[in-house]
Amino acid sequence: MAEVETRPDTATVDLPEVSQETALTTTTNNEVAAPTEKKVKKIIRRKKRPARPQVDPALVKSEAPPQTGVTFNIWYNKWSGGDREDSALSQTAAKGRCNIALDSGYTKADGHPGAYFCLFFARGICPKGQDCEYLHRLPGPFDIYPQNVDCFGRDLFSDYRDDMGGVGSFNRQNRTIYIGKIHVSDDIEEIVARHFAEWGPIERIRVLNTRGVAFVTYVNLANSQFAKEAMAHQSLDHNEILNVRWATADPNPMAQKREARRIEEQAAEAIRKALPAEFIAEIEGKDPEARKRRKIESSYGLDGYEAPDEVHFARGPNAVNPRGREGYELEHEQRLMLEAAEAAYTAEGQGEQQQQEQQTGGILSSSTLAALRNAQVAVASKPKTAAPTGPLVAYDSDSD
């Protein structure tokens, strides 16, 4: 083998591996430019973790609470009738508390649209975890349920309970909850906001510092229902036991106007979604040229004519505006084909019936005549009574 001489004026340079597509560019100073490295962005999609059991299933025991009444209701697991103590004063601390950051996850209910939320998850005592049949997460703005049930699937009533507890009423969209028995301190408003903001976006908080009472209004109805169950019999920064109830109607005129304005905004948003976008832009003045374009398009080739709104913005196969007929042509053709096939079938059936009548020579069909021939009907005739004879036949009575 030939030996390779190593000159003292040369040096070994380690070059990075370059593909055939990358060319080495040389400069006047005999320096080799390093190829540009391509940055590749890796998209890591983390799957949502499964919901964890909040309590150990082996420790779950179904035992009755201490007796405070006459009758024990096995459905609600509480005593009722003839309460010995005040229900507001005999509250016991909750057995658990939900931690949204740690307990949330997917369950069997995530694959079913319209599933309800887990009541035990809200209270922090669900032992099933990912095997639960209900949702283990916070309600969102798109979680909308019928008016007669809450987010947990429980039936609502026509009126509230006397103590404003329980499930609630379907006659009023109540998004405000009442919190009582709060430990009075200087930063009570900050404490209430920190604890109750965990259950959803809050619209307004009102705190009565000297009385230890707060009113929290949520943006969404489902969040208020979830927060009421999650904070019932809980404590804030101190060892108090909260009394969480539904709030009564606010008698403040400003609050009533605000609620009426909110309902009007919801109705306007629903109407805005139902109407065409160009019509909304014209009404709200977002498109300044919409009026001129509307005047030209709605004339339909007639000078001085402008179609009304119900004609110009109509939708369906019979709409005058060509835009309104978009997407309905195929449906209209299918309907015409079905009508034509039905008419042909009816005409064919009538032709067969007329042909059968002509063959029989009467209004009865051949099948009906055959059935009448095979039927044997025997009619029993009554025997005629013999006419009486004798000399006294023409008299009316024996006395004559």
From TrEMBL:
Chief location category: nucleus
Compartments where found: Nucleus
Record bears the keyword Amino-acid biosynthesis: no
GO cellular component: Prp19 complex; U2-type catalytic step 1 spliceosome; U2-type catalytic step 2 spliceosome
Zn-finger (C3H1-type) residues: 117-139
GO BP term (any one): mRNA processing
Residue ranges, compositional bias (Polar residues): 19-31
Ranges for domain RRM: 175-249
Disordered, as annotated region: 1-63, 379-400
CDD domains, alphabetized: RRM_cwf2 (cd12360)
Every C3H1-type domain range: 117-139
Highest taxon in the source lineage: Eukaryota
Keywords of the record: Cell cycle, Metal-binding, mRNA processing, mRNA splicing, Nucleus, RNA-binding, Spliceosome, Zinc, Zinc-finger
InterPro entries: Cwc2/Slt11, Cwc2_RRM, Nucleotide-bd_a/b_plait_sf, RBD_domain_sf, RRM_dom, Torus, Znf_CCCH, Znf_CCCH_sf
Matching Gene3D superfamilies: 3.30.70.330
GO molecular function: pre-mRNA binding; U6 snRNA binding; zinc ion binding
Family to which this protein belongs: Belongs to the RRM CWC2 family.
Function: Involved in the first step of pre-mRNA splicing. Required for cell growth and cell cycle control. Plays a role in the levels of the U1, U4, U5 and U6 snRNAs and the maintenance of the U4/U6 snRNA complex. May provide the link between the 'nineteen complex' NTC spliceosome protein complex and the spliceosome through the U6 snRNA. Associates predominantly with U6 snRNAs in assembled active spliceosomes. Binds directly to the internal stem-loop (ISL) domain of the U6 snRNA and to the pre-mRNA intron near the 5' splice site during the activation and catalytic phases of the spliceosome cycle.
PANTHER family: PRE-MRNA-SPLICING FACTOR CWC2, PRE-MRNA-SPLICING FACTOR RBM22
Record's protein name: Pre-mRNA-splicing factor CWC2
